[in-house]
Amino acid sequence: MAGAFGIILLSCWGIMALLGVPLIYQLLALCTLLVWPTLMFSYLHDRMHIEDFWMTKVPLLKSWFLKAKAA
Q1: pLDDT, tens digit, for every residue of 34-69?
Q2: Cα–chain center distance at 1
Q3: Integer Cα distance of 48 and 35 in angstroms
Q4: At 66, is the secondary structure helix, strand, or coil?
Q5: Among 10, 18, 48, 70, which one is most buried in terms of CB atoms within 10 A?
Q6: pLDDT at residue 1, rounded to an integer
Q7: Residue 69 to residue 46: CA distance in whole angstroms
Q8: What is the rounded distance in angstroms from the CA atom of residue 70 to the CA atom of residue 68?
Q9: For residue 1, what are the CA distances in angstroms to 24, 30, 34, 37?
């Protein structure tokens, strides 16, 4: 699994380099590709199994979180 992710990450970096995307934007995109999955699939997934998680107390997030938890 980690090997496939590495190949995808390197492919994205290569495509951006070929398209002439400035290095700062390449780094921003690649950092996002590393942080977003970690946040969504590790942190939030684990928290869906915790009762009374802080997101259920924030009105703006409560509806989204409870719908995601129910799915």
Answers
A1: 888 777 777 777 777 777 888 888 888 888 888 877
A2: 16
A3: 19
A4: helix
A5: 48
A6: 54
A7: 11
A8: 5
A9: 27, 18, 14, 13
SS3 6: helix
How many residues in total does the chain contain? 71
Dist. CA 71–CA 66, nearest whole Å:
9
**Contact (Cβ atoms closer than 8 angstroms) between residue 12 and residue 33:** yes
Residue with tokens 């390197």: 10
Q: Which residue has tokens 């990450």?
A: 9
**Residue 43 dihedral angles phi and psi, to the nearest 5°:** -60, -60
Q: How confident is the model at residue 6 (pLDDT cuts 50, 70, 90)?
A: confident
Q: Which two tokens stand for residue 31?
A: 């950092």
List the structure tokens of 2. 């980690």
Give the integer Cα–Cα distance in Å for 66 and 25: 34
Amino acid letter for position 57: K
